[in-house]
């Protein structure tokens, strides 16, 4: 019998790619999502890739009663991957209460359900934002956490603390936090990818929509940072590589390979790439020009951050494999496929 994995927020960008990798690895996937920033049609893409349509429940996990009802319906879960969170840095600065309410309540409701139904394993979608602007690069897992630059980042720090304290109080529970750097790209099939509703908050979908003529031009937020070309530097990881890290984390928990009840890993490439280098790389990989302009810095943005991934490489046996050019090309192919679907 296949082990059931709940993918909370599984209709979203990273969640949908992780659902694909879980199904390809022989797990039964249940997707729970309120569709606030995703579309139900994502399930069609998952099914087209894997031949299996995941079970789907529309639910708001930040609501205690809805969460309790869901777990009564699915009492045999082996593990949970928790993606269900609002995630736009700029929006969180403008709407902090919305972010704290949604991101923290959903996690606490899930942990309560794990206790009640004896579901021992949790993989949490964390973020490199917990490091703030680090004093030293690259960041390792022992890099001190700093005061977050945004409410979004702060919800990730607080969530990690909640998980750490909960598994300490309840030794039958185990958690792994994966601290993402910057996921980009799309599945090579172009059946799923990043599909934000409304105006994108992330660089790559805004870039691809600009090249597609949906947006007039891409804004580069600042060229006066202390970086080689003045634009912000990030560690851009292919979303499929990231999704595979979640499968490995789940298997680590299920096989009791974890060294403690709470572990955390940096999941990135180990390379820092600037925004202007992303634009150059996209033009190189696709042959398309990116209309862009330099504008003022954006509140909440960190100047530069990239990972030391050696701990995850060694302990999890995982590493990123995709090249930046291939990843950027996959993002463009996904955008082209969206346009083709809309024209039908």
UniProtKB/TrEMBL annotation:
GO terms for cellular component: cytosol. GO terms for biological process: galactose metabolic process. It catalyses: UDP-alpha-D-glucose = UDP-alpha-D-galactose. Residues 6-327 form the NAD(P)-binding domain. SUPFAM superfamilies: NAD(P)-binding Rossmann-fold domains (SSF51735). Keywords: Carbohydrate metabolism, Isomerase, NAD. It comes from the Bacteria. Its cofactor is NAD(+). Its EC number is 5.1.3.2. The keyword NAD applies. One of its GO terms (molecular function) is UDP-glucose 4-epimerase activity. Pathway: Carbohydrate metabolism; galactose metabolism. It is an enzyme of class 5 (isomerase). InterPro entries: NAD(P)-bd_dom, NAD(P)-bd_dom_sf, UDP_G4E. Pfam families: GDP_Man_Dehyd (PF16363). Gene3D superfamilies: NAD(P)-binding Rossmann-like Domain, UDP-galactose 4-epimerase, domain 1. Homodimer. PANTHER family: UDP-GLUCOSE 4-EPIMERASE (PTHR43725). Belongs to the NAD(P)-dependent epimerase/dehydratase family. This is UDP-glucose 4-epimerase. It comes from Marinifilum breve. The lineage of its organism: Bacteria, Pseudomonadati, Bacteroidota, Bacteroidia, Marinilabiliales. The gene is galE.
